[in-house]
Design goal:
The chain is of the alpha/beta class. The protein folds into two domains: 4-103 and 238-265, Leucine Dehydrogenase, chain A, domain 1 (Rossmann fold, 3-Layer(aba) Sandwich), CATH 3.40.50.10860; 105-236, Rossmann fold (3-Layer(aba) Sandwich). Helix content is 36%, strand content 21%. The protein has helices at residues 18-28, 46-55, 68-74, 80-85, 104-114, 131-142, 156-166, 220-227, 237-252, 261-265; strands at residues 4-10, 34-40, 60-63, 77-78, 90-94, 97-101, 122-127, 146-152, 171-173, 182-185, 208-211, 233-234. It has a six-stranded mixed β-sheet, sandwiched between helices. Strands 9-8-7-10-11-12 form a six-stranded parallel β-sheet, with helices on both faces. Strand 1 (4-10), helix 1 (18-28) and strand 2 (34-40) form a beta-alpha-beta unit. The two termini are 31 Å apart. The model has no long low-confidence stretch (mean pLDDT 93).
Length: 268
């Protein structure tokens, strides 16, 4: 029996719950010979690590920070979402070519729906301007109910690059006068040790706060949001589950049932 070989590649990657999620999917759908491992890489070895994985019989890779931009440049073909956001978090080998996809944005929109976070007529702030931010912005702009999306980034020139990339009046740079219904953190501030320094006016409207990163306890961004009186706040475990669902479907042409999985993972 041929091995169904998959992995997640990133740095850091030791904390990743992706293997648990995909093994759960494989068990649910009774796939035999399924394996899913972790690959720690570096900027200098990323391309060779990807090549080695697929040369050894790998079928699909998930790509996490900080390699989503490199993955985009490495792929031979791209789906529409990856083209729009210039970011890849899912790679599949097909007929000797690497196919690149971005499932982050749709994963977030799916989790918003499950958690009853309303996008209709919402004003959304994205903190950060990297690959994940681009993927999320792409999905939000396609979701006609989200009327306005703003970007807050430490280096404003990178935020301006996203404005140029999407070229729509629905997207703007954060303004102090803006009030938001939803604030999404895409930066790794929750993985650091320094105090979080963000302008408190971004949550003066008591928005729902959402951190793409996840932790067994509250993330540092969630704690910051609570101290500053946000409405509700969530970490990114639900998004991880939903984006994984879409990756799994791309690789195996099977759509797993994710109901109850987030709660199960929190008990690990």
């Amino acid at each position: 029996m041929d091995e169904l070989k998959f992995a997640v590649i990133g740095d850091p990657v030791s904390h990743s719950l992706s293997p648990n999620i995909h093994h759960f999917f494989a068990s649910q759908l009774q796939l035999e010979g399924f394996s899913y491992t972790k690959i720690k890489s570096s900027k200098n070895t990323f391309q060779s690590d990807v090549d080695d994985f697929f040369k050894s019989g790998g079928i699909g890779l998930n790509v996490t920070v900080p390699f989503k931009g490199q993955a985009y440049n490495l792929c031979d073909r791209l789906d529409q979402s990856a083209i729009e956001c210039k970011s890849v978090n899912t790679i599949m080998s097909h007929s000797g070519e690497l196919m690149g996809y971005s499932t982050d944005g749709q994963g977030l929109v799916d989790d918003f729906s499950q958690k009853k976070i309303t996008l209709e007529n919402s004003k959304v702030l994205i903190i950060g301007a990297g690959g994940s931010a681009a993927s999320i912005i792409s999905s939000l702009l396609l979701h006609e109910a989200a009327t306005e999306v703003s970007i807050l980034n430490r280096t404003e020139s990178n935020a301006i690059k996203l404005l140029d990339l999407f070229n729509t009046d629905k997207l703007s740079i954060h303004d102090k006068k803006n009030q938001y219904d939803i604030v999404v953190n895409t930066t790794p501030i929750s993985m650091g040790v320094d105090d979080i320094v963000l302008p408190t006016e971004i949550i003066k409207n008591k928005p729902v706060c959402y951190d793409l990163f996840y932790d067994k306890e509250k993330t540092r961004f969630q704690k910051w949001a609570e101290i500053n009186k946000s409405n509700r706040n969530y970490d990114g475990l639900g998004m991880l589950v939903h984006q994984a669902k879409h990756s799994f479907k791309i690789w195996n042409n099977l759509l797993p049932d994710v109901n109850g999985l987030e709660k199960l993972l929190r008990r690990l």
